[in-house]
Amino acid sequence: MNRGPEATVEQFIADVGADPTRLLDVALAVQRRFGHISNEAVAAMARGLGLHAVEVEDMVSFYAFLDRKPRGEFRIRLSQTPISLMKGAAGIAAAFAACLGIEMGETTQDGKFTLEWTNDIGMADQEPAALINSAVVTGLGETDVPGIVAALRQRPGGEDPFPLKSTVRASLIQAGPLLAGAFAPGDAIHAALAMTPDQVIEEITRSQLRGRGGAGFPTGMKWKFTRKSPGRDHYIICNADEGEPGTFKDRMLFTEFPDLVLEGITVAGYALGARQGIIYLRGEYTYLWDPLQAILKTRRETGLLGTSICGRAGFDFDIRIQLGAGAYVCGEESSLLESLEGKRGAPRDRPPFPTEHGYLKQPTAIDNVETLACAARIMVNGAAWFTGIGTKESAGTKLLSVAGDCARPGVYDVPFGITINELLDLVGAPDAAFVQSSGPSGQAVAPKDFGRQIAYEDLSTGGSTMIFNADRDVLDIARQCMDFFVEESCGWCTPCRVGTTLLKQGMDKIVAGRATRADMLALESTANTVARMSRCGLGQMAPNPVLTTMRDFPECYEARMRPELFVPTVSLKDALRQAVSIQGREPAEAS
Ligand SMILES: Cc1cc2nc3c(=O)[nH]c(=O)nc-3n(C[C@H](O)[C@H](O)[C@H](O)COP(=O)(O)O)c2cc1C
Ligand code: SF4
Prior knowledge:
Blueprint (H helix, E strand, L loop, with lengths): L2 H13 L7 H12 L4 H11 L3 H8 L13 E6 L2 H5 L2 H12 L12 E6 L11 E3 L2 E3 L7 H9 L18 E3 L12 H7 L3 H10 L12 H10 L6 E6 L8 H8 L1 H15 L3 E6 L7 H13 L16 E6 L9 H8 L23 E5 H13 L1 H5 L9 E8 L5 E6 L4 H8 L4 E6 L5 E3 L18 E6 L4 H15 L5 H18 L5 H17 L3 H5 L2 H9 L1 H7 L11 H12 L8
Parallel strand pairs: 1-2, 5-11, 6-7, 6-9, 7-8, 10-14
Antiparallel strand pairs: 1-3, 3-4, 10-11, 12-13, 12-14
The structure holds flavin mononucleotide and iron/sulfur cluster.
């Protein structure tokens, strides 16, 4: 590297105060500026941050949005999901390929364009969609492609100036109790400041608010544990990784109700005694960086962030945004912490839990974006208002991201307790044949279960709701879901790394009509092993597409079976035995 680029890397390092835990920020800046991270850049980062080059290499190699080799100046990433494919993504891919004269995964000879698939980019209600560098282009038609390519060709490379604007449109279709009604910046903070931090936690506990990110842990309890854990600092982290295919409600909140979320983070900061909040924003949402920074600036200028917030001496709190770099597993809270500390996003062993030993080993509460929006509303409207909505065990509303075969895709703010049938009426899906609820990690719901309620005690969901009519093949969707997990497994533990691939291959065989009943039994056994022996939630949930369709759509498997030819003798347990003997230990038990 000549002195020019090296000086640029040094500047990026200086921008983060040469803090090694900010390695991801430095790497993203290098990637943005140079289009890849060269050996020289790795060496410069290691030198400047006081790390070993291997540590830098280890981190950089983990993330999909960081490249060690040069790619095209314009990176066209088409979203590949069950929804995008049924909305015509394959045709868009073919149109780009024809226009650029390359295949998917290739770079043009002049080094200008790389064309590739990527996993869901959070735009299920406006597919087909693409990430072009950091711009998000939605609602693509094949006829749009030549114009996009021509606009890009006319400009110099890199991000700035960039010829394309993100075209993401508003996604909220129906505001319910959470989102309807006025909310002025400062409302929730003022309400919180009328209470002590312990009283705020008490109010959140009384509201029975549970985490909206999937697991449903009681938020008041999480805040209480975090507040009472001793530490130099306390942290509140807003999990905006939103990687589950089909979900986009957190994006909607950040675009259409940003003050509600930022206020929830600030209230949490007050309750926990934290001085810093961090939003972990998925890399696919980089286009939200500038608007969010502008809102943070306004909040600082109006005394809603910074020192002595709302005139309260000693209440000093600010929020920074950490961009992710394209890794679904980083939504898992312990992987998120690793990523925030500038490392690869591999899950941590627990205990200790983040509430005691989280970001920088300090007590940390990690809450979903929607959870924090709920917390802000609860401050203003009170716990009793919240428990008056929903069901006995599920207070409040749930934001559902609805997409697929329906007339009105978008986000719906509905009280817990709504049935799938009621939801299908609301969104205009009279001929739904199945609903993939809570994304690939969730389950395919059959018509016999459309009377079930969305609630923690019945059909629990993070919000992704993909609707499919009778033209869609439930087994092919399950196969695509397995594809997603193969791509996103971090590879740390064998059951998930090997098992997801075996499950994907099994589904390929079934969908192709080449599987026997014995294959199906072997697949089921593999799925159960992967669920039981994987180290983190990703691997534990990855077999769900296989197991839930086997349980609820047996007739679809039956129809695809070919006559018994032989009985397989391979099992995952046997396949793992060799690895176990080499490592000298059993794979980690599920935490
Ligand atoms: C593989 C995986 C991905 C996850 N992705 C997210 C995510 O994108 N957003 C989120 O809030 N929670 C996600 N979670 C759940 C988090 O680990 C954590 O439970 C959540 O952020 C806690 O916030 P809550 O209590 O408000 O739900 C994920 C979990 C797993 C296992
Ligand atoms: S289950 Fe294992 S391999 Fe899969 S994501 Fe978690 S730690 Fe990584």
